[in-house]
Design brief:
By secondary structure, the chain is an alpha/beta fold. The protein has helices at 22-32, 59-71, 81-87, 105-108, 120-130, 151-158, 164-181, 184-194, 210-221, 224-230, 276-282, 314-320, and strands at 4-6, 12-15, 45-48, 75-77, 136-139, 142-145, 233-242, 245-251, 263-266, 304-306, 330-334, 338-341. The protein is globular, with a radius of gyration of 20 Å. This is Metallophosphoesterase.
């Protein structure tokens, strides 16, 4: 497996996270000038940053459409954390569509009932295709990755030849041995036992638990595949409550320290297409894009761009009757740097 692969030459359109929103993807592709088969009158080609699936109304249709364009040489696609979860067999919010109907964990909570289900034949072909996807694409002037361009992780993965699941598990085992040797799990376990009830109580007063913070941040940032697909984390100065528990580690806005010459385009981070005050109110934890407008280039050289504008929230907007949608799917036209939304 070659995890870091060459990016298309010539004009490309880089599409952000899709999250199963097939109608929105069709609108976006039409606005970009592509026909349903992914052909463009000027020869442009598509690049998808991953997270094609989960939460939306038709993940199977999105995967089939993108895979067909990739096979035809009209598109490239990299692996996102949501596809990686499926490869690893991880049950996460919004991916019950990939399970058999009697094993759909989302159905238990009454969520995502309108999402199209995968067939048995699709499940196998999708798994094979996900396992063929690279983790990053690069050319002299441009890099594309799902969540984070992390040089140390990229270099490790350049030399990794195992398949996706085998590589993930081997790298995870290596990191676990490191944490065991450093004694990190001992303090982590003690803190979990002592604060078990409070950790899921949003009204509790929980101090910074350094053992939990160290393990959580290193298990994320120290795993090359997780770093590229889910980003970097570090111990936070102040615990915060998000997605059901108190957090001792926070995401790192790595683009603020990105000073390489090639531009880098990524998704993953739920960049709200709203004014900063509204975006901060909606962010899960600290607003990583504080100080930037929703469509601004990022970093000291202004050559990093997040193209995930929260289309993954549309399932909730539909349930709440929100119209028009706030969450959008978008694309960056390279080299004009025009941003096109659905």
């Amino acid at each position: 497996m070659q995890f870091i692969q060459p990016l298309f030459d010539g004009p490309i359109d880089i599409v952000g996270d899709v999250h199963g929103e097939m109608p929105a993807l069709e609108i976006l592709l039409a606005r970009l000038g592509y026909d349903p088969a992914g052909r463009h009158p000027k020869g442009n080609r598509l690049v998808f940053v991953g997270d094609l699936v989960d939460r939306g109304i038709d993940s199977p249709a999105v995967v089939e459409r993108v895979a067909e364009m990739v096979e035809a040489g009209r598109a490239q696609c990299i692996l996102g954390n949501h596809e990686l979860n499926l490869i690893r067999g991880q049950a996460k919010e919004g991916n019950g569509w990939f399970q058999a109907a009697d094993a759909d964990h989302d159905a238990t909570g009454g969520h995502f009932g309108a999402s199209a289900r995968v067939s048995d034949n699709q499940r196998k072909s999708f798994m094979d295709w996900f396992g063929s996807l690279p983790l990053a694409l690069e050319r002299q002037d441009l890099r594309v990755v799902h969540a984070c361009w992390h040089p140390e992780s990229v270099e490790i993965l350049r030399h990794e030849t195992r398949g996706t699941l085998a590589a993930y598990e081997a790298l995870d085992a290596k990191l676990t041995r490191r944490l065991e040797q450093e004694g990190a799990f001992t303090q982590h376990a003690q803190e979990l036992r002592a604060w078990k009830a409070e950790l899921t109580d949003p009204n509790a007063h929980v101090p910074l638990l350094e053992g939990i913070g160290k393990v959580d941040s290193l298990k994320q940032s120290g795993h090359p595949m997780k770093a590229l697909t889910s980003g970097l984390e570090r111990m936070t100065a102040t615990p915060f409550f998000a997605t059901g528990k108190w957090r001792m580690a926070e995401r790192v806005a790595w683009w603020n320290e990105y000073e390489d010459a090639p531009a880098v385009v990524f998704g993953h981070y739920w960049r709200w297409p709203l004014a900063e005050e509204d975006a901060t109110a909606r962010s899960r934890g600290p607003n990583l894009f504080s100080g930037y407008g929703p469509f601004e280039w990022l970093g000291p050289r202004r050559n990093a761009l997040c193209v995930d504008w929260c289309v993954g929230v549309r399932w909730l907007e539909r349930r709440q009757g929100v119209s028009p949608h706030v969450g959008r799917i978008g694309a960056l036209r390279w080299e004009s740097k025009e941003i096109v939304l659905d």
